[in-house]
Each structure stands twice: as structure tokens, then as C-alpha cells.
């Protein structure tokens, strides 16, 4: 198969869809890989590294999109990229369609077969292609939140760990999955007073076990959230209902109950955000204020540590990428129900029920599509 890897064009996105190591494996199995010139530079991989791995180097994105039967990317295709997709082509990347009607419309209009990293599943109920980036974003969340808490950035001027004789900051993490657990690890390590909430008692029990008393767990309810945010210095939004738009768990009215200069870090922004006042920001301009509360809502947080993230993402995507290239998308998703869970559009049809529900569009299941 001809595999194409373009340079990411989302602002300040330095990751790349394939590492030279992934290229080597694909080429060894008889596939052709074409990489856009400069695609890996942000992650520390040069054109020479890709050429040595066996890739062809293309001068621009248009040549990559024209040549490739499968496009491998990181972020959801931007409008200029969507215009280059076509029927019969496979797109393998993050999509986050539920909060994004324009992208959904364009993917359907193009006829592309789009497989979303973030809804591919594993045998233990996890999301193996989301997890590595959630590990990164979770670790970054207290780091960027503590920067936003600094006075010069609009925050309340509170040091996360406090100092002897002065209390540490209160950090509330809503959602104790991969992001929430990684955020808790770093926030606890920085000396904050951490509370994690979740709707899964089993998950809270796991967190209680592994943190051995170094954080507090709380069942997530509207009342518990209202109570916790009043005294919070930082609230990290880390909930997920796979494929669906994030539930809004803090309303605008509630901001006035919070301490002025407190910080909201909405990691769930890529699924639309879990605070009513969240809107996606970029690494260039990451924070804004609403009613005295600082919001950090960068939808591609892992792009900030592009080398680590590219390697972690590449490790996770490689087996799926090889299956798609070796077998073709239809056989690959037929053979693997976990990869099938990522199938989002094909030939102008939406194959994700949560996206259909979020956007009011008709969707059929991947199983029905394959049976036709
Ligand atoms: N902004 C960014 O750059 C990035 C964003 N993300 C996003 O972060 C979010 C979280 O991802 P993961 O941790 O991997 O998901 P996950 O599935 O591991 O964890 C989500 C947790 O939220 C819990 N939950 C669901 N509804 C809840 C509620 N009402 N209250 C409290 N908890 C609730 C679930 O029980 C689960 O434990 C996703 O939207 C993901 O796309 C992930 C990586 C990068
Ligand atoms: C998961 C995601 O949206 C990201 O890594 O950018
Ligand atoms: Mg998006």
C-alpha cells in the first residue's frame, strides 16, 4: 500500500504521524511510504532520517495526499487538508467529530474512510490510541495549570505545593481515567492537596489503592462538584464518554462561587469541554478569563512535547497501521473488532453512533456497513 504522512498544520502542532522506526517496519513489509518534507522536524526527525528508513520525501502536502492510499496523521484534518481527501482513501488519525460539525460534514462529503484513533478499543475496555496522549496531557495539566496560577498570568498567585507553614493548593480533578490519574500523580508529586472525582466507584477504589492515602477520592455528582470547586485553586477537567460530546459539569453561574484567580484546565476540550465556559485555545494563546476564572483549553496539549508524544503515539498506532496496510481497511476492521470501533466515516456514511447523536445525523454501525 502507498502510505502518506503529511506535515501537521494545526497551529503549534509539532508531532508527526509516523516515526522513522514506523517507516522502516512498513517498508520492510513491502509498503511505499511518502513523507512530506520537514514533517518530522518538530519532533526531531529530519528528512534524511526518513529517507534512510526507506521513505520517499514529497515537496508538499498536495503530493502526499495525491499519492497515498492511506494518510497517517496526528490531529484532525484541517479544512485545507479535508479538501484533498477522496473516496477510496483511508484516513487514520485523531478526529474528535462529536463537537465538530464542519469536519464531519467535510469528511462525509469527501467519501473518505476515516478511522479515529480515539475510539479504537482494547480487550480490557481501554482506548489504546488515546491513552498515550492522555498520559502526556494528564502529566502536563498540573504543570500548565500551575503556570496559569501565577499572578502575571491572571491566576491567584498560589504555589501548588505551598511552603512550610503555608497550605498547599487545592487541586480538583474531575474524571479519574488515564488523564486524571496522570494529572493526580504529578499534582501529588508537586505537593498539592488533590481530590479526584469519578462516576466509577471501581476506578475510585483503584485510585485509593495506588495512591495509598496521598489523595482523596469523591463520587462525582453535581452537588459534590459544586462543593469542591468553591475552595479549589485548580480544577482539571478529565472526563470522557468515548466518542461523545463531553458532559458540561461546571456552569457559568458557578464561576462566581469560585475563588477569584482560580484556574480551570479543560483537558476534555477536544470532545467539546466539560466546563460551560470552555472554548478551544492554542499553544500560541492558551489562556483566557471568564468572570475572574482563568481557563486553559488547549486541544492538542501533547504537541507541546512533540518528541515524547510522537514516540509514544507511534508505538501505539504501529500495529494497527500495519494491519490496515497489510490487509486493506475492510479486512483489517473485519478481523479486529477493536480497530472496527474506530471506523467513523466511509463512502459518505457516518459509522459512529455517539457522533450521530451529538450532531443529529443518521449513523449506521460499522457491523451493518460491513454486512452491506
Ligand atoms: N486536550 C488534549 O490535548 C487532550 C485531551 N484528551 C482528552 O481527555 C479526556 C479524558 O481522556 P482519558 O483520561 O483518556 O479518558 P478515560 O476514559 O481514561 O477516563 C475518563 C474518565 O471520566 C470518567 N467520567 C465520565 N463521566 C464522568 C462524570 N460525569 N464525572 C466524573 N467522571 C466521569 C470515566 O468514568 C472515566 O474514568 C478525553 O476527552 C480525551 O480526548 C486526551 C489527550 C490530549
Ligand atoms: C488526543 C488529542 O486530541 C491529542 O493528542 O491532541
Ligand atoms: Mg478539534
TrEMBL record:
Record's keyword terms, sorted: NAD, Nucleotide-binding, Oxidoreductase
Residues of the Alanine dehydrogenase/pyridine nucleotide transhydrogenase N-terminal domain: 4-137
Top-level lineage group: Bacteria
GO biological process: L-alanine catabolic process
Annotated Alanine dehydrogenase/pyridine nucleotide transhydrogenase NAD(H)-binding domain residues: 149-297
Keyword Nucleotide-binding: yes
Entry GO MF terms: alanine dehydrogenase activity; nucleotide binding
Keyword rRNA-binding: no
Protein family according to the UniProt entry: Belongs to the AlaDH/PNT family.
Leader sequence residues: none
GO-annotated cellular components: plasma membrane
PANTHER family according to UniProt: ALANINE DEHYDROGENASE (PTHR42795:SF1)
EC numbers: 1.4.1.1
Protein name, UniProt field: Alanine dehydrogenase
Catalyzed reaction equations: L-alanine + NAD(+) + H2O = pyruvate + NH4(+) + NADH + H(+)
Residues binding substrate: 15, 75
Binding site for NAD(+): 134, 198, 203, 220, 239-240, 267-270, 279, 298-301
Gene name of the record: ald_3
Active site, per annotation: 96, 270
Amino acid at each position: 500500500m502507498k502510505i502518506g504522512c503529511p506535515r501537521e498544520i494545526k497551529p503549534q502542532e509539532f508531532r508527526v504521524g509516523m516515526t522513522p522506526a514506523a517507516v522502516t517496519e512498513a517498508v520492510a513489509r513491502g509498503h511505499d511510504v511518502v513523507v512530506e518534507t520537514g514533517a518530522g522536524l518538530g519532533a526531531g526527525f529530519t528528512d534524511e532520517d526518513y529517507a534512510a528508513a526507506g521513505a520517499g520525501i514529497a515537496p508538499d502536502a498536495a503530493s502526499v495526499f495525491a499519492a497515498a492510499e492511506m494518510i497517517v496523521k496526528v490531529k484532525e484534518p484541517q479544512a485545507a487538508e479535508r479538501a484533498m481527501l477522496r473516496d477510496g482513501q483511508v484516513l487514520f488519525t485523531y478526529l474528535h467529530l462529536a463537537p465538530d460539525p464542519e469536519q464531519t460534514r467535510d469528511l462525509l462529503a469527501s467519501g473518505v474512510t476515516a478511522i479515529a484513533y480515539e475510539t479504537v478499543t482494547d480487550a480490557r475496555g481501554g482506548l489504546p490510541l488515546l491513552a498515550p496522549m492522555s498520559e502526556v496531557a494528564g502529566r502536563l495539566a498540573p504543570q500548565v495549570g500551575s503556570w496559569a496560577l501565577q499572578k502575571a498570568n491572571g491566576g491567584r498567585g498560589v504555589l501548588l505545593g505551598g511552603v512550610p507553614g503555608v497550605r498547599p493548593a487545592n487541586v480538583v480533578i474531575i474524571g479519574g481515567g488515564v488523564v486524571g490519574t496522570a494529572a493526580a500523580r504529578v499534582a501529588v508529586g508537586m505537593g498539592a492537596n488533590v481530590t479526584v472525582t469519578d462516576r466509577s466507584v471501581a476506578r475510585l477504589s483503584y485510585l485509593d489503592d495506588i495512591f495509598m492515602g496521598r489523595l482523596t477520592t469523591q463520587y462525582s455528582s453535581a452537588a459534590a462538584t459544586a462543593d469542591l470547586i468553591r475552595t479549589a485553586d485548580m480544577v482539571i477537567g478529565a472526563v470522557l464518554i468515548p466518542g461523545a460530546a463531553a458532559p458540561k459539569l461546571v456552569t457559568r453561574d458557578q464561576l462566581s462561587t469560585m475563588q477569584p484567580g482560580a484556574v480551570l484546565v479543560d483537558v476534555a476540550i477536544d470532545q467539546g469541554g466539560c466546563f460551560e465556559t470552555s472554548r478551544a485555545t492554542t499553544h500560541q494563546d492558551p489562556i483566557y478569563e471568564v468572570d475572574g476564572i482563568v481557563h486553559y483549553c488547549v486541544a492538542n496539549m501533547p504537541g507541546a512535547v512533540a518528541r515524547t508524544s510522537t514516540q509514544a503515539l507511534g508505538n501505539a498506532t504501529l500495529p494497527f497501521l500495519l494491519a490496515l496496510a497489510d490487509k486493506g481497511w475492510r479486512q483489517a476492521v473485519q478481523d479486529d473488532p477493536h480497530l472496527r470501533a474506530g471506523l467513523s466515516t466511509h463512502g459518505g456514511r457516518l459509522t459512529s453512533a455517539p457522533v450521530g447523536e451529538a450532531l443529529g445525523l443518521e449513523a449506521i454501525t460499522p457491523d451493518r456497513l460491513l454486512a452491506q
